């Protein structure tokens, strides 16, 4: 088999904001140990195109991901409409286009890789780990999703188990959305590539893209695995804590509460004092307020204080040439 590189066409449509209903996996609220992750900013439909060329055929595969929610209408292969559909309630699907080099035919078929809403199998629950628990030198989040069924061709009715592994790697300089295309852009590139007769390969790496295919194939337990690397700041262990505990937010929080407490204290003092003056002395108007005379005199007191300050400063300046005998 000859594997060549070709650019990865990507697109994101809903990565991790609503898996809660099916599997208890809330992508905005991921907790592993004492760490919390929010991957909801990465939402969008992902489209990854790969091509593998052998002596006999050229196989192009389009992977579509919608991990937080089901693919819905996106589960259909746009090039062929309703004829090629992955079905409903799928989170990751593969659409295969295999053309024989001798011109004997083309085989087109889909298969689900992740189906987190399938009923009756406990293995559908996501497996979550910190990457540091696997490799102390790597920071991020390891997510393993299962529930799919791999097919070798359109006539394969039974198939084998399929799943996906996504390693969200901490990268403080990346949002995770770099290098992503739209679905339309992705498929247009694929059509142009076929029309130009370009060679194939597995799109496994693209330095400009935050999302890349790391490996595709059968694992030791005979399960088809799609493994992805995703570099993003949202996978950093301390990102959520740093975002919520910035120095400015702490300062503003303290002074806000200080102002609120002072205001409530003054308001309570004025209300209670007014009530007391009314009931004891039958006071009305300004006389209701405790220390009403002082409050009325505040503007004059301030003016007197300001005048004294000015006079003091002027007097200190006028003594510059005087010396005692």
TrEMBL record:
Keyword check for Transferase: no
Entry keywords, A to Z: Autophagy, Cytoplasmic vesicle, Disulfide bond, Golgi apparatus, Membrane, Mitochondrion, Protein transport, Signal, Transmembrane, Transmembrane helix, Transport
GO BP term (any one)? autophagy
Q: Which residues cross the membrane?
A: 252-272
Superkingdom in the source lineage: Eukaryota
Q: Which SUPFAM superfamilies match?
A: Mannose 6-phosphate receptor domain (SSF50911)
Q: Where is the MRH domain?
A: 25-238
| Localization terms from the record | Cytoplasmic vesicle membrane; Golgi apparatus membrane; Mitochondrion membrane; Preautophagosomal structure membrane
Q: Record's family?
A: Belongs to the ATG27 family.
Q: Where is this region: Disordered?
A: 179-213
UniProt feature, compositional bias: Basic and acidic residues: 186-197
InterPro entries given for it? Autophagy-rel_prot_27 (IPR018939), Man6P_isomerase_rcpt-bd_dom_sf (IPR009011), MRH_dom (IPR044865)
Protein name, UniProt field: Autophagy-related protein 27
Which species is listed as the source? Penicillium nalgiovense
- Gene Ontology CC entries for this record: cytoplasmic vesicle membrane; Golgi membrane; mitochondrial membrane; phagophore assembly site membrane
Topology in membrane:
Single-pass type I membrane protein; Single-pass membrane protein
Q: Where is the signal peptide?
A: 1-22
